[in-house]
């Protein structure tokens, strides 16, 4: 197990001279892929350091899986480069890139035992049998599967099969593990459990992981950085906290946290804040300082969990609670703001602290939780 616990695992196996990631990034530069008139990926670029857990996050058709497939070698880019360690792999066949891949469908060989499935990549590489036995045993132990080596896939649960698929990708110590929605077929409880286990293994072994998902919570829980993708482009590539707290576009604010958007115009600045006069209710919203000229039309983006329901005479606007739904630890409320017919403001407040349907409330937020977007950005 000690051999696996290094920050940048070597991937030279039985004379295979593959790249190593010793602090060097996996580099993707200006990747582009089209299918006829459809642009699937448009000038995607990023630098990934050894040991990072990176997630491609987006809706169906955003380009996340196509980007992963180009890195894996299953899909050839129209243009751009992919470098792993010190080696350009852009035009290499998948088997020559020496990258680990975990699919959503486990793709285990049903006629093989767990041990044989995990050993398969090493057998192909001509690794001696004693070495195979040692590595498979270590890898199964890491994944909590010691004692399962003699079982067939049909004798395993879905979560156990997914662990076997992960072990098969880990056993030959590739410089990068690619995962295409590997937990998509599992129920929520097992999914949450495996998120923690995969992240724990990744941190223990110092693995570099590129992970694809459409699940925002999964991305936030597991990732060091997230590439939010939209229409083939990377909308923002940042840490989970930065994406949630400081989204650069309305799309990122809405996709990561289902933000409320309130329209208005910048009225003036103070030393620390920007004041926005709201179109609907005429209230004055205080935001953290933004470099926007007075008079600029803006959308103020505020996450539901960062809005507060206060007394009616407090806050930047007032309204009436139209919906209040109990969801365990939270109450999700919808407030109809006075002065117009804009969509309900959505709030998430701790259960037991109100508000209730029909209640009159004032809406407030901390200035640091308010992001302003010029209307020209769209979104």
Automatic annotation (TrEMBL):
Q: Which UniProt keywords apply?
A: ATP-binding, Nucleotide-binding, Transport
Identify the domain of life: Bacteria
Residues in ABC transporter domain copies: 26-256
Q: Which SUPFAM superfamilies match?
A: MOP-like, P-loop containing nucleoside triphosphate hydrolases
Give the PANTHER family listed for this entry: SPERMIDINE/PUTRESCINE IMPORT ATP-BINDING PROTEIN POTA, SPERMIDINE_PUTRESCINE IMPORT ATP-BINDING PROTEIN POTA
The name this protein carries in UniProt is: Polyamine-transporting ATPase
Q: Which organism does this record belong to?
A: Streptomyces lomondensis
């Amino acid at each position: 197990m000690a051999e696996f616990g290094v920050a940048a695992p070597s991937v030279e196996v039985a004379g295979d001279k593959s790249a190593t990631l010793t602090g060097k990034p996996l580099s993707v530069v200006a990747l582009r892929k089209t299918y006829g008139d459809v642009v699937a990926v448009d000038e995607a670029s990023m630098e990934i350091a050894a040991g990072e857990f990176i997630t491609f996050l987006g809706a169906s058709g955003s380009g996340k899986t196509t980007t992963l497939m180009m890195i894996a070698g299953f899909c050839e880019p129209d243009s751009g480069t992919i470098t792993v360690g010190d080696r350009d792999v852009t035009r290499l066949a998948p088997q020559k890139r020496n990258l680990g891949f975990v699919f959503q469908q486990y793709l285990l060989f049903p006629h093989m035992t767990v041990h044989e499935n995990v050993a398969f990549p090493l057998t192909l590489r001509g690794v001696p049998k004693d070495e195979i036995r040692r590595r498979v045993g270590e890898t199964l132990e890491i994944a909590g599967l010691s004692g399962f080596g003699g079982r067939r896939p049909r004798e395993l649960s879905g979560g156990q099969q997914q662990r076997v698929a992960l072990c098969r990708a880990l056993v030959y110590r590739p410089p990068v593990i690619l995962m295409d929605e590997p937990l998509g077929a599992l129920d929520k409880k097992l999914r949450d459990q495996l998120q923690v286990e995969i992240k724990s293994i990744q941190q223990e072994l110092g693995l570099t992981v590129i992970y694809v998902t459409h699940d925002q919570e999964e991305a936030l829980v597991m990732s060091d950085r997230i590439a939010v993708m939209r229409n083939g482009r990377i909308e923002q590539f940042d840490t989970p906290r930065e994406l949630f707290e400081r989204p650069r576009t309305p799309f990122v604010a809405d996709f990561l946290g289902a933000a409320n958007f309130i329209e208005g115009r910048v009225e003036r600045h103070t030393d620390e804040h920007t004041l926005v006069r709201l179109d609907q209710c005429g209230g004055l919203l205080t935001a953290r300082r933004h470099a926007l000229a007075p008079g600029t039309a803006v959308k103020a983006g505020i996450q539901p969990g960062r809005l507060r329901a206060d007394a009616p005479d407090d806050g930047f606007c007032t309204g009436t609670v139209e919906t209040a739904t109990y969801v365990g630890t939270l109450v999700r409320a919808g407030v109809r703001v006075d002065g117009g017919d804009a969509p309900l403001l959505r709030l998430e407040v701790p259960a037991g602290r109100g508000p209730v349907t029909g209640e009159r409330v004032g809406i407030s937020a901390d200035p640091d939780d308010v992001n302003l977007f010029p209307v020209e950005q769209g979104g």
